[in-house]
Amino acid sequence: MSGSVASIRAADRADIDAVSELLEQLGYRQDDRQATEQRLRHWADDPASSVLVAIDAGDLLGVIAVHVGPFLERDGCWGRIVALVVADRARGRGIGSQLVAAAESFAGERGCVRMEVTSADHRTAAHKFYVRRGYLDQAGTSSRFVRDIAVAEHQDHGRTASRSTT
C-alpha cells in the first residue's frame, strides 16, 4: 500500500453524483438523484452521523458513512460504519484506511469506545481489510436480524413512536 494523499472532508451537495457512482460500485442502485441528495442532507443534519469523502486533486475517491449511538447496557457509546467504498481506480492507496481513521475520530470525539461494521459474507477482501485494522470478526458469536417496516409507522425517521388513539 502506497502513502495516502487524499484529504478528508464532510460530503456536500456537489458530491452527490460521485457518491452515487461509488454506491453503485457496491451494488446499491442510485436511480433518483433527488433522493440521494435528500439522504445526504439528512445525514448532514444529524449531529450523530457523518458522511465523509476522500478527495485527491479534485477527484472524489471514496466515501464513508458513520453513525454514533449510546450503549444502553453500559457507559459510553459505539460508532458504526454504515457504508465504505473506495473507487476501483484508487484501491490499494490507503484511501480506505484514511476514511476509517476519520470515522473513528468522528466517533471518538463523541465519546465512543467501540466501532462496529457489518460486511456482506461475499465481501471477503473487505473482511481482511477490517481485520488488518484491528476489527474482530464476530461471525459465529452474534447474529444480525433485519426486518423491513412500513415508513408510515415511523414518520420522523424513527423519532416518533407509533401513535395510539384513545
From TrEMBL:
Task: Give the GO cellular component terms, alphabetically.
Answer: ribosome
Matches recorded under Pfam families:
Acetyltransf_1
Q: Where is the N-acetyltransferase domain?
A: 6-158
Q: Which PROSITE patterns match?
A: GNAT
Q: Which residues form a coiled coil?
A: none
Q: What molecular function does GO assign, one term?
A: acyltransferase activity, transferring groups other than amino-acyl groups
Instruction: Note the InterPro entries from the entry.
Output: Acyl_CoA_acyltransferase, Bact_Acetyltransf, GNAT_dom
Alphabetically ordered keywords of this record: Acyltransferase, Ribonucleoprotein, Ribosomal protein, Transferase
From the Swiss-Prot or TrEMBL record, give the protein name.
Ribosomal protein S18 acetylase RimI
